[in-house]
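Mods, move this if it's the wrong board.
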Amino acid sequence: MSIKEDHNRFRDIIRGKIKQDFKRFVSQGEMIGKREKDFVKIPLPHIEIPTFRYGPKQQGGVGQGEGKPGEAIGEPGDGKGQAGNNPGEHMMEAEFTIEELADILGETLELPNIKPKGNKSVETSKTKYSGLSNIGPEGLRHFRSSYKKALKRYIASGIYDAKDPVIIPIRKDLRFRTFKTILKPQAKAVVIYMMDVSGSMGDEQKEIVRLESFWINAWLKKHYKGLETRFIIHDAAAKEVDEQTFFKTSESGGTLISSAYKLCQNIIETDYPPSQWNIYPFHFSDGDNWSGEDTRLCVKLLTDFFLPNCNAFFYGQVESKYGSGQFLKDLQKEFPNDDRVITSQIEGRDKILDSIKDFLGKGK
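Not the wrong board. Structure tokens:
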């Protein structure tokens, strides 16, 4: 077995371990904190493939030494020995791409692939392997074809020995994959996150939003290369911020949800023509709003603008002991059978995976 096959087998073992404990990985923030561009480092318990190990010679072992039948093995010491000088075991970190994690997410939740809407007006380059050649870089060597060519040469020359079937390819046996770069139409997409940062939304609620938005982004990036992301925070007023500010800002004022929806509409109308973009507005709140009048304004904005122009509108209600939770009830009452309004109730970290299923399970 080649080193590459060993590596792939080990990756499969790690992947299986991640799937087994996926709910725990989703609900903890340590993994997201270890991002490096398009890679994530995942801390895993020590995984070891069973092997035989042989110690230094003349140090005893099974069936050796001066022991007699019935004698105890490994009598306890007095605890006064010197401290050890060997390194202890550490957690292993496995490196996965965001796309690999999105694949695991999709398999775990059985998510349907997204069918983009709008014009595919952006072209992306893609490498397509198109055939074989007798010249090429070592990294593109095609093992099966090279082996078959060498085997045919051995048989034709009469040097093949079935009792000792060792095949050693020479230069003229080697075959290499050839490729060409093709242009592929790619749909454009933007996700706009809105979050209530008023006093009733605490640090734990914001952490839940942070964790959930990471996985939502991972899944959307799998379907839209170059996904754009925008962030809006609001209490009684709304403003656009960067990602770091989005998760760290706290305010003490009241809540006017319509302020965020108006700003989101302005961003879409200015930068993202709905005929050309797939648009994903996500709003997270604990359900408080200043008044029923403002809630009616929100419903009108959804009906008149967001639903006709966006792939769907997503509302996540994060449970808080200070929040009333009323806004979710209002949306469910106003849009009882409209699958363009997708809501989710997030009662805690252990419900993040269920909430992601709520949002992405319709393939919007």
